[in-house]
Design a protein that fits this description.
143 residues; mainly alpha; Glutaredoxin; two-stranded antiparallel sheet; 7 helices; 2 strands; 3% strand; globular
Length: 143
């Protein structure tokens, strides 16, 4: 469903996605959030995130160990030296902390949580639900 929205609305500039991390499942989710930002440096955020989510195996089960996050980086085609340096320096830890605090301020308590024009949406897996909400918002904004 996410890819459909990206193809139909984001790729043509009608909608902008702002991704915020909400690493509430322990240390591994923090490291995975940082790793995805390191992937974003190389223009591969969405590909990396998809790999991370597809491989999830439960809370703090080792899936998001630094070793596995590095394997995911290789699977995604990232430059490993750049990725390793980014992770070693905790380059995006402050950004992840800021994202978490913002989510808490908005009442986020699970992932994914989606907002459209500042309004929290239901977590429906149905593409049609999101399409209707997006079209309504575009009409209201003149887009």
């Amino acid at each position: 469903m996410g890819q459909q929205i990206i193809r139909e609305y984001v790729n043509n500039g009608r909608v902008k996605i702002i991704y915020r991390h909400f690493p509430f499942l322990g240390n591994e989710s923090w490291r995975a959030a940082e790793a995805s930002e390191c992937a974003a440096e190389q223009g591969r955020f969405h590909e990396y995130e998809e790999t991370v989510f597809v491989n999830w195996n439960g809370v703090n089960q080792g899936t998001y160990s630094d070793e596995n996050l590095r394997i995911f980086a290789q699977m995604t085609g990232l430059f490993i030296n750049q990725f390793d340096e980014c992770m070693a320096n905790n380059k995006y830890l402050d950004k992840v902390k800021t994202d978490l605090a913002a989510g808490q301020d908005l009442g986020v308590n699970s992932t994914p949580t989606l907002f459209l024009d500042g309004k929290k949406l239901d977590n429906s897996p149905d593409y049609g639900y999101f399409r209707i909400r997006i079209e309504e918002a575009l009409k209201t904004s003149g887009g």
